[in-house]
């Protein structure tokens, strides 16, 4: 079935809103819906795994995302490491604690009843996935992590494209925070406040990281006023801390490359560059605090090799 959008589409949320409006009114009465990006490769067991989760009572589920092109460039390799870390230490960990994993833009499923309770799909920010996660928290609806359902998503090869994409994520997350933090705060006091409190913490992370530079600047300013000797000691401490953190981040990257079944010797550039990739989130978050972006920029895809697991 091909669905036609009758109204202008400026972002993915606009397309989903119009698509779900048609699907929910369809005489076929679909029980649930899976959402993918057009360039995704989907594991052959995806629907089986999702169906199993929904048969057990789950109403919103998130699949495991993996990079389709981890060896194409150091940038795409950094994405592969980043999402592997996110899957293990954010999604799986939260699911084990009875909290919700992140509904990242692709590879998720939602039951018809959730959309009906929400009045359809209603997102207005440029990060519709984060906004929908916020709406689930407000509804007291826990998102389930389905590790056996896998999607492969092609990642950017260009650093410039990566910066544009991640800036949209940062800015969109802050838009969701401005929109939903007051309501989430109110929900903390009721019986479903655990999910709301957890999501408040998630939405505050970009702000905390952006303003984390303030103490560093104050320490440097203190060193300047205290004299050359104190300043040199401060610079040594900051430099040593930065070096240690970078080495630890690179080591985490090496471990995650092994964890996802890749060969470190083929991804050594991504492992070495991973600390730089992570630190570049900081200027993006600082910029997003003062200058919001509401424009979606195209992320070009060139196609990738279909993983053997998906065959």
Give the topology.
Blueprint (H helix, E strand, L loop, with lengths): L11 H13 L7 E4 L5 E2 L3 H10 L4 E8 L6 H23 L11 E4 H6 L10 H12 L4 E10 L5 H29 L5 H18 L2 H14 L1 H32 L8 H12 L1 H10 L21
Parallel strand pairs: 3-5
Antiparallel strand pairs: 1-4, 2-5, 3-4
Helix pairs in contact: 3-9, 3-10, 5-6, 5-7, 6-7, 6-11, 7-11, 8-9, 9-10
Write structural notes for this entry.
With about 300 residues, the protein is of the alpha+beta class. The chain folds into two domains: about 10-205, Spore Coat Polysaccharide Biosynthesis Protein SpsA, Chain A (Alpha-Beta Complex); about 215-290. About 60% of the residues lie in helices and about 10% in strands. Strands 1-4-3-5-2 form a five-stranded mixed beta sheet. α8 packs antiparallel against α9. The longest helix is centred in the last third of the chain and has 32 residues, at about 230-260. The relative contact order is 0.15.
Quote the beta fraction: 5-15%
Strand order of the largest sheet: 1-4-3-5-2
Low-confidence stretches: none
Q: Which fold name corresponds to the CATH topology of the largest domain?
A: Spore Coat Polysaccharide Biosynthesis Protein SpsA, Chain A
User: In angstroms, what is the radius of gyration?
Assistant: 21 Å
CATH class of the largest domain: Alpha Beta
**Whole-number average pLDDT?**
90
The CATH architecture of the largest domain: Alpha-Beta Complex
User: Which structural class best describes the helix and strand composition?
Assistant: alpha+beta
Major beta-sheet overview: 5 strands, mixed
Termini gap: 24 Å
